[in-house]
Write a structure and sequence with these properties.
9-stranded mixed β-sheet, alpha+beta, 31% helix, 3-stranded antiparallel β-sheet, Trna Endonuclease, Chain: A, domain 1
Length: 192
């Protein structure tokens, strides 16, 4: 299953994307790409903390099942929420805000990821501005985070505009302990 949701652009953005359809990399897709990256890096459990709106943007349960995860805890009322397992890996999805979007332990360090989404094939000035703003917001949320963590990661879609901003911010972010990660439409993670 792909991370991208394709949609026809609204009238005001028609012709402002590469191709005929806008390619949305919604926030839950960025969160799932980060979960996959954390598992590939050695994490055994990843907690996803989307807000309720995310369930409407991207089917997290369907993506997890396509990756071989099985829902083992059906106590939650929201369809995507619950515990999913695949061999020795666990994903815990709960619709809770204020904890960080993705939480894990990796190499003895507590990792907190703040994720944002956006349109990855846009040339529309307003949407490009939104992508840049989302990177600033992710960094700001980590600076004002709920609990201390060993690794703080801001994850946003890979786009020429987010690359420029990330390159400008990366030194200052590293000084305060924040990593910037750009996520492609294929779910590949690039550290800046």
């Amino acid at each position: 299953m792909t991370f991208i949701t394709e949609k026809s652009p609204p009238k005001g953005r028609a012709g402002k994307c590469e191709g005929e359809l806008e390619q949305h990399l919604h926030e839950p897709a960025v969160m799932l790409a980060m979960a996959r990256w954390l598992f590939n890096s050695g994490a055994k459990k990843v907690c996803l903390r989307p807000d309720g709106m995310h369930a409407k943007q991207f089917n997290m349960r369907r993506w997890l099942e396509s990756e071989g995860f099985e829902k083992t805890d059906a106590k939650e009322k929201t369809g995507d929420a619950g515990t999913y397992t695949r061999q020795d890996q666990t994903v815990d999805v709960r619709f809770v805000s204020g904890q960080g979007d993705v939480l894990a332990e990796l190499g003895g360090q507590r990792v907190v990821v703040e994720a944002k989404g956006g349109i990855i094939n846009t040339r529309h000035s307003g949407q490009k501005s939104r992508l840049r703003k989302h990177l600033y917001e992710a960094v700001g949320m980590l600076l004002d985070g709920p609990d201390p963590a060993d690794r703080l990661i801001a994850a946003v879609p890979l786009h020429p505009d987010t690359i420029k901003v990330a390159n400008k911010m990366s030194g200052r972010c590293r000084d305060v302990g924040i990593e910037i990660v750009l996520v492609s439409g294929a779910g590949e993670v690039q550290t800046v």
